[in-house]
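[User] Could I get a sequence and structure tokens?

[Assistant]
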Amino acid sequence: MAEVPDLSDLPMDVSENDEEFYANDVPNKMKASKHLHCHENRVTCLPKIKLDIRKPEKLVRSYKKVFTAVAETLKESGGSKSQCLIYDDDLLTPGNENVTVSRVDIKEAAPLKFAYNSTSQHNIRDSNDKALIMEGNDSIVAVYLEGENVQLELKINMNTYIEPHPDSNKRPVTLGIVGHNLYLCCTAEEGVTSGVLRLTEVDDIKSKENELLPFIFYCRISSNLSTFESAAFPGYYLSTSPEEREKLQIRPDDQMFLTTFQVS
């Protein structure tokens, strides 16, 4: 029967020095020499391995130049009329020290235009049933009419318009006095932030295509009553005082004045 050799007599791949091979603080060359030394009795020919570790190339990139170029261009353009564009290649191409910056002019939006649609005539009274009449040649007041005085009530030409982005809940209109070339107009006045309602003479309202904004009111209808909001002064409405013979004006909807009207 053959003898079983003692384990200590068998050549092993693991030596007492293998722990050093896995140590982090031992240089690669020392690890390799220790590992080969423990096998030199069994390996007759082992090709030499040369480790050639290549370090990644550093991007020779100065991002400071990118931000400097952008800042200088914005400073020159004022930051409002132009826009800076940095191309992708400037950020991705290594070694490229030149920053390409282009200036693009931004066109301002065209002014809002209203296209004439149709005209209809109406009597307009406030929600307290006060009628509108002329007082002098330049103002409108709200009064209670009866008997023959009903003939003094103004008829209003309501011209409707179409705008580029219509809202189904409101329609732009102008309000003119039948028999006169007078239209309600909201204008700014020195010392007054809310605007003032005027009667302005216009020979042909349709010819003021690019100057219609002060004449436009947004008409909204709810429960058979209409409101007229100034397009030039959003949040301000045609209003009448609860008292009689007060001028028609534009005011915020503060519930102190009447801002709803009956349109017959």
Remarks:
- The longest strand covers residues 192-201.
- Residues 34-44 have pLDDT under 50 and may be disordered.
